[in-house]
Amino acid sequence: MSFEPDAARTAYEGRLIGLTVERWGDHEREIVEHPGAVAIVAVDDAGSVTLVRQLREPARKRLLELPAGTAEPGEEPLETARRELQEECGLTGGVWRELAAFWTTPGFCRERMHLFSVEGVERGEACPAADEELELVRWSVTEIAARLHEIEDAKTLAGLLLYLRTLPERTGPG
Amino acid sequence: MSFEPDAARTAYEGRLIGLTVERWGDHEREIVEHPGAVAIVAVDDAGSVTLVRQLREPARKRLLELPAGTAEPGEEPLETARRELQEECGLTGGVWRELAAFWTTPGFCRERMHLFSVEGVERGEACPAADEELELVRWSVTEIAARLHEIEDAKTLAGLLLYLRTLPERTGPG
Prior knowledge:
2 copies of one chain form a homodimer.
Chain A: E1 7-13, E2 18-24, E3 27-33, E4 37-44, E5 48-56, E6 61-65, E7 68-70, H1 77-89, E8 91-92, E9 95-103, E10 112-123, E11 135-140, H2 144-147, H3 154-166
Parallel strand pairs in A: 4-10
Antiparallel strand pairs in A: 1-2, 2-3, 4-7, 5-6, 5-11, 8-10, 9-10
């Protein structure tokens, strides 16, 4: 079953996001428009997962996250994921699998995220966007469980936890 | 280490959220302002976790989620969590524990979320806000693992997965 608003007006149109005020029956909802996104748990043959550390301006600090990115117009989620992984981390190839798809903040934002894992990626040269200053961080898959407390990002927590469940044997404590 | 923008202007001020355009060096960032939020994995003595199903207007559908809510001014996260759990679900008491704290979408939004678990809650009467139409759904803790694919919300995935890791024995497959 799908639902639609009775009326909608654009309150702000930005570069990445916009804001729409929708009327639903007797109440209004402020909704952040977003083109959708992907995040990737990328593991190489040495058993390392690649994370990125970067300044997140809304958080006022550098955060450690899964490689991720926003969909370009007309792009399928898997295309976005392959493109972002190569641009941000220089990683290509591998065997892909969709772990989940979810809304990141369904109370107020239309961002839907597809979460992938890819095993057996090959390392090459990254070419991040001009305004991205990324530090690549590698964790052994076997240390993920013990280091989850270092993660302060929702998609990264969900992604690493879902990925751990796909492994034949549990790794690490907990 | 903390970082601050060089300049900021308010582009939109709404009821729940606002939008600020910040200048950081040579680039601008559009940032959704948000007061912060909580989500709760609430388990009763019968071993049931309470979820809520409600229309999420940005998703155009009803979603199954952890009980959650937005901080009131001056409220500590645990206060928000106790209040929301009683209002939305009529659940009180129990032994509380903070499972994690994270940014929900740190690329463009200042929402920081605290995730709690509470064991041994008691059922009473819920009193949701006037514009909330909530259906309470109970899952046995033992069926969470097998039903994760029904979840399409990031905080609920992360919360249930983190909660499962706190249990002395794994429940369900996978």
